[in-house]
Amino acid sequence: MNARKSGAVTRGAAEEEFKDGDLPPSKQLLAYEKVFKQNTEFFSTCNPDDIEAALVEHLRNREKIEPEVNKDKYKIKFTLVTKG
């Protein structure tokens, strides 16, 4: 995975500020909206492209899953079957 710098991003911000050398996200970031009371969520200041790439790499290499990656949003669909 290539390392990227991320800009200062605040939840719900319509515009992000990026310093010299920082790369903006390649897909549109939408404002956070809490829809359900029970979700698995996490927040990060890392560039979302790096997070997406790391998750896809993990699913392909470790779990042997081919995820469906949305080309317009940061959205990944996959099925993980476990024993137990």
Features:
single chain; 84 residues; mainly alpha; two-stranded antiparallel sheet; 2 strands; 17% helix; globular; disordered N terminus
Account of the protein in words:
The chain is mainly alpha-helical. The protein has one domain (1-84). The protein has one helix spanning 48-61; strands spanning 68-69, 76-77. It has a two-stranded antiparallel ribbon. Residues 1-15 have low confidence and may be disordered.
**Low-confidence spans:** 1-15
% residues in beta strands = under 5%
Structural class: mainly alpha
Number-wise, the strands total 2
- Total count of domains: 1
Q: Please state how the strands of the largest beta sheet are arranged side by side.
A: 1-2
**What letter string, H or E per element, gives the SSE order?**
HEE
Helicity level, as a percent range? 10-25%
> Radius of gyration from the CA trace?
15 Å
Number of helices: 1
